[in-house]
Amino acid sequence: MPRGREYRRKPRRTGPKLLGLDLGERRVGVAVSDDLGIIASPLRIIDLKHDTLADVAAVATDTGVDGIVVGLPIGMGGSEGHQARETRALAAELGQLVTVPIVFWDERLTSAIADRALANAGRSSRERRVQKDAIAAAVLLQSYLDAHPWSPSPDGSQPQ
């Protein structure tokens, strides 16, 4: 039996926990932020050939996120094309399955950044192909977190 007073700390969330999604026609790269809403990490890949958007919604529920950031494929010139419309449609379907807000974030070059990072880490092209979507989701979520730093109000409450 330990001596003295035993302290049990509950983890305290100080920022929004977010899910990042790189929605593709076949695969969904999934990333999640830490409980502080500061660091994004790749979580998994959901293969839509075998799974559905309900599986994506289940990940959102299971991880207890406060919101979802969906990568929007915008062209280098800033225009939205066919893929952006498809992404918006998939996100609308997902929105019917979750209770948390969904926001879009520019995902330009996230796949290229992910591929380069995996290549620099010595991953084979097959390993890169398998892991790239989750890494791309983490890159886009980290970009969102960096652009939206969270800080508590002086009274300790979360700003709206």
Question: Can you tell me about this structure?
Answer:
37% of the residues lie in helices and 20% in strands. The chain contains four helices and five strands; from the N terminus they run E-E-E-H-E-H-E-H-H. Helix 3 crosses helix 4. It has a five-stranded mixed β-sheet, with helices on both faces.
Task: Indicate the topology.
Layout: E1 18-23, E2 27-33, E3 40-47, H1 53-63, E4 67-72, H2 82-95, E5 102-106, H3 110-120, H4 125-147
Parallel strand pairs: 1-4, 4-5
Antiparallel strand pairs: 1-2, 2-3
Helix pairs in contact: 3-4
Number of helices, counting only DSSP H or I runs of 4 residues or more = 4
Whole-number average pLDDT? Answer: 81
Order of helices and strands: EEEHEHEHH
Roughly how many Å apart are the termini?
45 Å
Q: Give the strand line-up of the largest sheet.
A: 3-2-1-4-5
The SS-based structural class is: alpha/beta
What would you report as the Rg, rounded to the nearest angstrom?
A: 18 Å
Helix percentage: 25-40%
Q: Find the count of extended strands (DSSP E, 2+ residues).
A: 5
The stretches of 5 or more residues where confidence is low (pLDDT under 50) are 153-160
Major sheet attributes: 5 strands, mixed
